[in-house]
Design goal:
Layout lengths: L14 H11 L4 H8 L3 H9 L7 H10 L25
Helix pairs in contact: 1-3
């Protein structure tokens, strides 16, 4: 099994920007990521451009497995949509 790549999440970075930077750090084009994941080019582009703000878990799993990312790193990505309810915090 491949080791997880630690691409540091930048403050206020969106999911799309994080995935694009991670893909580029892995040396992959969008076309190559499409080939490896079986996702459509449209899906990859929409995720990276931020037009798919909340992709499904199965889509994300395909991408982060291929990019060799640690899914725990996705937890700290901020949501920029003010219409979404905020997650409850437990004290």
């Amino acid at each position: 099994m491949k080791a997880s790549r630690r691409v540091a999440l930048r403050p206020h970075e969106t999911l799309g920007a994080y995935l694009k930077r991670s893909r580029e750090a892995a040396g992959l084009s969008q076309d190559e990521l499409v080939r490896r994941t079986g996702l459509s080019l449209s899906t990859i582009r929409k995720m990276e451009d931020g037009r798919t703000a909340n992709p499904g878990i199965f889509t994300l799993t395909k991408v982060w497995r291929e990019l060799n990312l640690d899914p725990a790193g996705l937890i700290d990505i901020p949501e920029h949509d003010s219409n979404r309810p905020k997650a409850a915090t437990h004290r």
